[in-house]
Amino acid sequence: MTELKAMEGSLFNDDELSRMDQRSDPAQHPFSELIAHYGVVMPPSEARHLFDELLHNAPWARRNMMLHGREVEMPRDIAWYGVARGQGIYGRDPQPWPPLLLEAKRHVEKISGYMYNGCLCNLYRTGQDSVAWHSDKDALAGAVASLSLGATRTFRVRSKNDHSLTHDFHLVPGSLLVMLPGCQQATEHAVPKTKRPVGLRINLTFRQVGS
User: Fold this and answer.
1) N or C: more exposed end of the chain, with fewer CB within 10 A?
2) How many CA atoms lie within 13 A of 67 on its CB side?
C-alpha cells in the first residue's frame, strides 16, 4: 500500500469562506431538479494546492470492474477515503481522511446540505481516461457531490427514459456539481474520451455509503 503523507495547512481563510457563503443559486439546465451545478466554489490557488497534494500523495491504483459480464480494467486511477466496505472498490485499502480533503468535504457539505462518509477520487491522466455511461448504484438513495480539480473535462448526463435528452457540463477546476437524491434512478452520466490535448484531472466524488 502506498503510504499517504499528511496534508498540512488550510484550504480557506475566513474572508474566502465568507465570500463563498454569498454564492449564487445553482445554474439552470434541463436536469435542474436532479442536479445542482454551483460553478466554482474554491479559489484557484486553493484548488491547485489540493490537486497537487492529492496527485502526489494519494494511493492511486488502477482497478478492475465487471462490465457486461466480464472483468475489465478501469480507464482511470482511483483512491478511496473514509468508511470501509467489505466488497468492491470501497473495500480495498480505504484511507483515513487527510486534513485538506476533510476540510474540502466539510466545505462541500455546507454548500450542498448533505453529509458524506466517503470519497471516491478519480485521476484522469490523459484524454483517453474516461467513464462509460452508468449510474452510481452505491448512492441510489443519496446525493453524490463532485468537486473538480485540474484540467476541465466534459461531464455528460442523459435521461434513462430518453437517451436523446442529454446535457454537457464543462467542469472547470474548483467547480462543484451535486447529483441530488433521485438522480441515479432517472439518469446516467459519463466522462467521454477526447482526442484534444488535455491535462491531468482529479475528480472528488463525495458520497454516503453503508459501512
Assistant:
1) N
2) 11
Within 8 A by CB and 6+ apart from 162, the residues are: none
- 44-57 and 99-112 are packed helices; what angle lies between their axes, rounded to 10 degrees? 130
pTM of the predicted model, to two decimals? 0.85
* Element housing 145 (H / E): strand 144-150
* Total residue length of the chain: 211
Q: Count Cβ neighbours within 10 Å for each residue of 33-69 and write b for 16 or more, e otherwise.
A: ebbbbbebbbbeebbebbbebbeebbbbbeeeeeeee
Judged by DSSP in three states, 20 sits in helix
pLDDT tens digits along 143-164: 999 999 999 999 999 999 999 9
CA distance 109 to 103: 10
CA distance 174 to 47: 5
Distances (CA, A) of 177 to 36, 37, 159: 6, 4, 17
pLDDT at residue 2, as a whole number: 34
Under DSSP, the state recorded for 88 is G
What b/e string do you get for 183-203 counting C-beta neighbours within 10 Å, with b at 16 or more?
bbeebbbbbebeeeebeebbb
